[in-house]
Design goal:
Blueprint (H helix, E strand, L loop, with lengths): L1 E10 L3 H9 L4 H4 L3 E6 L8 E6 L5 E9 L3 E8 L2 E11 L5 E10 L3 H29 L5
Antiparallel strand pairs: 1-7, 2-3, 3-4, 4-5, 5-6, 6-7
Helix pairs in contact: 1-3
């Protein structure tokens, strides 16, 4: 497994507001600039499946591999010969500040190919997407 990008921010927005934005996948293009659309096949939970269309790319199937409300959301895109994993972690410190971090990894026999194709774009856009996610969560009106 190879890490291709990480991003982190600290916010006064409550963790649930981030999870509400992640769960509302139809609105992902509002804050994720590389995404044309996202569709979830059922409820937002571990094991849920869906599809997304990256801008300029093919429709990609994904699965929610882990969902711990208020703590973790991990989704895995199923690429030809590789798995692209986005792990989203949320933590609240003793002062009540929320820290959100995202780690993107690739694994599989064709991970080297997908890193060459996708790696730089994901790494370049991840921090901005996280900042836009925070703004979208804040707009939902939920702050600490």
């Amino acid at each position: 497994m190879t890490t291709i990008a990480t991003a982190r921010l600290t916010s006064d927005v409550q963790p649930q507001a981030f999870f509400d934005r992640w769960a509302d996948m139809a609105t992902w293009p509002d804050w994720n600039t590389d995404t044309e659309w996202v569709r979830l096949d059922g409820p937002f939970r571990t094991g849920a499946t869906g599809a997304l269309k990256p801008k300029g790319g093919p429709v990609t199937r994904f699965v929610v591999s882990s969902l711990v409300p208020g703590r973790e959301f991990t989704d895995v895109s199923l690429l030809l010969g590789a798995r692209l994993t986005f792990q989203h972690l949320v933590d609240v410190d003793a002062d009540g500040a929320t820290t959100v971090s995202v780690r993107v990894t690739l694994a599989g026999p064709l991970a080297f190919f997908w890193k060459a194709v996708l790696g730089k774009g994901i790494a370049k856009g991840l921090a901005g997407d996280l900042a836009r996610l925070e703004a979208a969560a804040r707009t939902a009106g939920v702050t600490a």
